[in-house]
Amino acid sequence: MRNLVVFMHISLDGFTARVDGAMNWIKVSNEMFEYANARTQAADTALYGRKTFEMMDAYWPTAGDKSNASKHDIEHSTWYNKTLKYVVSETAEQQNTDKIKFIGGDIKAQVLNLKKQDGGEIIMFGSPGLARFLMKEGLIDEFWLFVNPIVLGAGIPLFPNTEIKLRLEKSNAFPDGVIGLHYLKE
């Protein structure tokens, strides 16, 4: 069975965004991109909530083609364009393509089916509402959390009101104060 892996930036107090959805507090660095890119390459499938997908799809398909594209833009754009993407949505236009599939209805059953298919890891960037649902259902196998050195006090939480036991696999401190934490579900 394939692992479902969540990549998420969070504040020290566990929020993924401000109350209004703003994420301008997130710190990113070339070191972090290298760290995350090594792991992203193990995934051949991505899972997104509709809002996160719309944000990602507005940028990544052509990010690597721009004259000022960074190494990260080129690498992640290449990965994004070759990766099969599943979008969980009840409201998005249901226009499947060869690389984008929309799913709705019984999300738990569909994600379980996806995990049973052959392939590499399934990676999920962002999508905190979907992440909370999948955590409650016990479907997330790994967490890659980038804890930013800020306390927001309020916002969109990552974790549901559900106990989840985790085992720390690896931690990495970045020069900008962000701590990368890799946890496996016990």
TrEMBL record:
A GO molecular-function descriptor: 5-amino-6-(5-phosphoribosylamino)uracil reductase activity
Location of the Bacterial bifunctional deaminase-reductase C-terminal domain: 4-178
InterPro entries assigned: DHFR-like_dom_sf, RibDG_C, Riboflavin_Biosynth_HTPR
One Pfam assignment: RibD_C
GO biological process: riboflavin biosynthetic process
UniProt protein name: Dihydrofolate reductase
Organism the protein comes from: Mucilaginibacter rubeus
